[in-house]
Amino acid sequence: MRHAETSQGIGFIELPTFTSDNNGLVRHGRVSSVHGLSLEVNGLHPPPPIGGCIECSSESHEKILAEVVSFRGGTASAVARKGLEGLQVGARAEDVGPVLLRPCSEWLGRVVDPVGQPLDGLGGLPRGGQPRALRAPPPPAGTRARLGPRIDLGVRALDAFATCRRGQRLGLFAASGVGKSSLMSMLARHADCDVAVIGLVGERGRELREFIEDDLGPAGLRRSVVVCATSDSAPLMRRDAALAAMAVAEHFRDAGKHVLLMMDSVTRFAMALREIGLSAGEPPATRGFPPSVFAELPRLLERAGPGREGCGGSITGIFTVLVEGDDHDEPVADAVRGILDGHVVLDRRIGEGGRYPAVDVLRSLSRTVPGCLEPAERDLLARARRILSLHRDMADMVRLGAYRAGSDPAVDEAMRVAPAIEDVLRQGKDENGTVAGAFAALALAMETA
User: Fold this and answer.
1) Strand partners, 71
2) Which residue ranges does the record assign to the AAA+ ATPase domain (predicted)?
């Protein structure tokens, strides 16, 4: 017998007994302590690796999966995939290895959780695909294919002002309630891709069916795989929703498919990482985020993009970033913006003015635009940006009567043409478009205004 400190005080438990296989490896240990979101297990030899899973049995004999996140001496510290209610000191713990997914083409049209269990009530998922770990390295930079041709996203504001190439990664930066979900549904239904993979990280539970049935619709769902962990899930499940969505996208990319990966949101992924890191004993740093968060972000985001040269497949990534208090320079937004190949900004004031999608085209940028536009399209885009910028700068003076029409031909042109450009950017959820169509509409509006 030994003393053990529990939440009820000091008690007595039996010394742990461990089970060995024929090679002398200890496969079963015991929970030695439980605190917050984490638990500690000792007695396993050799100890499971970082990222390995431990299965514990609660008082009600319910199985609790936990992932090893750190070691203290010979003791493994793990974070559970769900609540630890009912787990006691001395509970049996078994090393069960990492979580593996087996995605295949029959996953299309399905909604799953981060460990591959169905959430749509349609029965079990086929498991015929090759097993994939949630974590994987990106393709080697030296043998990775280059970006492909430009693709039609189906949204005029993006096709014209943030033209995207196949395999590019764009960030969608917005505060809450500005229309991210509606824009994502438009992309899922209209973008030129073979497969859409949608990762919903920390999604509100009541909004899952609304997004799938109303926003995505049967046509969008038919070519999509949705991976979801709701906001009440444990931080490990919310983190793994992003990793699982990436793993599913990689499966289809390696099969030669052109994949559109949409993840909502990277901010909630970072928040889950913060909870896990603090539970593992990491010191808080920038705004409470431990250093491991900013090391983990590029490991996730770099996995999107083109595959190896000759693979034929690609992952075009759209990653939403929830900017807190409309602060676009907060740490997560700043780190993500530096990793991705462009950013799209949604502005609450534009939405309040009645124009959706509420894309602020002057603050949005695609870093691949110079390589995917024709010279005439580049000239048209530059002129449209100048007109919108001048209109924004002079709008208050015109409203106050401080500017007299005819004083400056450029200002007069901006006041006349900018509303026509805004009409081009206004688009309903069910409208579809192409890059060529977006530039044609933009040219027509600027010529006839």
Assistant:
1) 76
2) 166-351
